[in-house]
Fold this protein.
Amino acid sequence: MNRNLVIAAVATMATGAAMAQSSVSLYGRINETVERVKIGHTKVTEVRDNQSFLGFKGTEDINGGLKVSFLLEAQFNPDDGRAGTVANQGGSFFGRESWVAIGSENLGRFRFGNMQFSSFYYSTADAVGQHNGDAGTSADAFFLYVGNVKNTVAYITPAIYGTTVEVQYGFGEKAVTDNTTKTAANTRSVAVMYDNGSFHAGGGYVKGPLTQFGRLFLGGPTNFNDVAGTNPLSSSESYGLRAMYEFTPNFNVAGYVNRDELNDGSNTAKRTSFRISSKLSLGASDLHLDIGRANSFTGASKTGAEQYTFAYNYNLSKRTKLYAYYTRIDNDKNIYYGPGFSSSNQSAGIQPGDNFSSFAVGIRHLF
């Protein structure tokens, strides 16, 4: 064979391989803090992970503008190198997010798999968590993650006049052992998102199991069987609205209000929660103020709480920032909202009525 033809064939194969590789990206986040944490009367200084993760994503263009894409995300703890855990995903390796999708700009997009959080979360709380992306001890303590997002089918419409609608259905699949016992209740979720210049808004509704209810527990007259996630078949509901207005490119205010109805199969309780956040950018610096409130559950007196967060970010680059914050959760006497200590054996003594606070300094790097 002609030597030049061989070289050309090898070059063509190499180019094809390079193009195939270019459609897949490796990305992630390393986010760690050193914190002085106080719960009740106990104080601990510790290093904490703030939802660090490693991800893979890719896209293939099909004829006619059709695209197939995928995303896989695995959470890990950089402070000790262990695989991380996502509370509502059971610690699976790609439990943070794993799905495949097909769609186009004109037709919208279908996704199949594990969506991490429901569309309701992204239409309300996600847009308000400006400081640290609802990661770590300064995360929103009052948003309740209702809904199963594993085994989910989702569809999002094309943007029409700045508006998109996403619907999700999570299947409560049966246990493999007997093919009759469901591992979770079905989930129904719908979300509407609107963007128009400086104004952004959203709203949604979700009905399904309590997937991440372990972050709070009730004392007093109401006894929820699901406080440790032991009754995933309960069917609860949340609905809410959020809005953000950018007064200038450097200053905005955002907020949401949610209404939750919790049902563990034996007991029901309702409550309203809200959160307001603001961001002021001054050069490389960002100043954040967040205020949240959860009212008492119906039928359970003294089960309200308030959260305050003050944060400062210094952006070394578009991918790296240094930051510090102080967050505090004041709980009524019959409830505890907030995380435990990072060492699980130090969390056993937490009681309803304990307050939570943390002063943290950290670094976040995106790659």
Observations:
- Residues 3-22 form the longest helix (20 residues).
- The radius of gyration is 22 Å.
